[in-house]
What we know:
Blueprint: E1 4-5, E2 14-16, E3 21-23, E4 35-39, E5 45-48, H1 50-63, E6 69-75, E7 81-86, H2 88-94, H3 96-103, E8 112-116, H4 118-122, H5 124-133, E9 137-138, H6 143-152, H7 156-168, H8 179-189, H9 192-204, H10 206-210, H11 220-227, E10 233-234, H12 237-251, H13 255-264, H14 272-281, H15 283-287, H16 289-304, H17 307-310, E11 325-326, E12 332-338, E13 345-352, E14 363-374, E15 398-405, E16 415-427, E17 430-439, E18 467-478
Parallel strand pairs: 6-8, 10-11
Antiparallel strand pairs: 1-9, 2-3, 4-5, 6-7, 12-18, 13-14, 14-15, 16-17, 16-18
Helix pairs in contact: 2-3, 6-7, 8-9, 11-13
Amino acid sequence: MGHSYVGETLASVQVGTLLLSLYFHSVTVGGAALKQEALFENGGTVLNHSMALVQRMETLLALGNGSDVTLRVQTLGTDEVKVIQAHTLVLTLQSDEFDELLLNRINGSSPLVLSEAPDCAAVFDKFIRYLYCGDISVRLDQAISLHKLASKYRVWALQQGLAQYMTQHLSSESPSGHVIGWYQYAAQVGDAALQDSCLQYLSWNLSSVLQSREWSSISEDLLLSLLQRSDLILGSELELYEALEAWISHNQPASPTVERALKAIRYGMIPPHHLFRLQKQSSLMVKYYESVRDILYLAFQFHSASPIQLAKYFEVNCSIFTPRNYLSSSWGSPWVINSPTRDDRSFSFQTQLGPSGHDSSKRVTWNALFSPRWLPLSVRSTYTELGAMQPTRTDAGRPRIIVTPATSSPDFAGVSFQKTVLVMARQQGKVVVRHVYNFHQSTEESGDFLIDADLQRRVSEYLIDSSLYLHIVVKPLYHTLIVAKK
């Protein structure tokens, strides 16, 4: 596992010696001992010897020279004890908790006894070194333990830096996975920002999560939370059902949890021939058939009747009839745009008219237009004879995308199309969904599409090998046309 240095991203920290307080700014391991920071008009300069000072502080900790406090770190549940010779001034400058502990000691010469869980005790030396040197190397499997120590001892800069590290390394490869563990830890300590980042990553990259070893470790609460979401990005609803079946087989949850999870599957989004197979071949479905029988019956009705006819009697705006962001070819297409700043691009693809079996053989052809520089509607030209909006291009414009049907049809009655554009990125060597843009009927007037993208930069986070990797998803939504009869 590679090491990543967090010290560069942390806030400036105060580090003391036995004689005076010294301030470090933007400490970087491996830098030169003497560095010019800035030049003044009068010929003056700032001499930065911070690296030499860091080395001396590290030596001070290692040798324990001038130590005035002994830390005895006991590992809970074991007889293991670590002894660290430390310095009161350093500890109290860096940690509010150490400040209180040392102030309230009854015997000022006695060791300070600290009890730590095994995972925290294993990285305690690394934590103390950070207090002296202001930088720290972090592995994925150490992030939670170090965050616990930073929180317990109220070292706020380190705590924030570790939370930022976790947010930036959600896509990193690890043998057993880490995002689910980070999510559960964030929920436990009340870090809403980290929790939301983890949940977003899991939702947007669910297909890869379902296929990982990490999937079996997901908690019941997180599983049920994910199953309720319409923004999940995955191959198909059948893929989600099969992953749920594997999770239940591995974890053997109580029956109420199984029933809640099975009822959250959107069976209306699974083609009838697969539903028939599940009824007969899925041991999970056979065992819990009675709990989902009514939902399956409604799904079969949905597939057999015209959506307009069904809408006369049922509320079709409920979740069972609402697609998620499916990546299969029935619901959209990938689109790779090479050199996206060069000129306008167009692209055509087809999707299924709707998820109902009644519409499964009907196709909608879509025209997609991408423009790197596009002005608002007020200064744009009118429709062409093909019905496609042509942008007025200018160097001052912003990237825009429009996705419009190539033709109209009476079959469109009662159906609206939500469009979702996924932007891929490469993070830690892996291609992931980095941005998601949702449009409803009109895609040309979204104000935030690639609003922060600098497509001119070859290293832009929006680009992979200088190309823009998109995936367009079209989600057909049926409408209740007549109030359902009671």
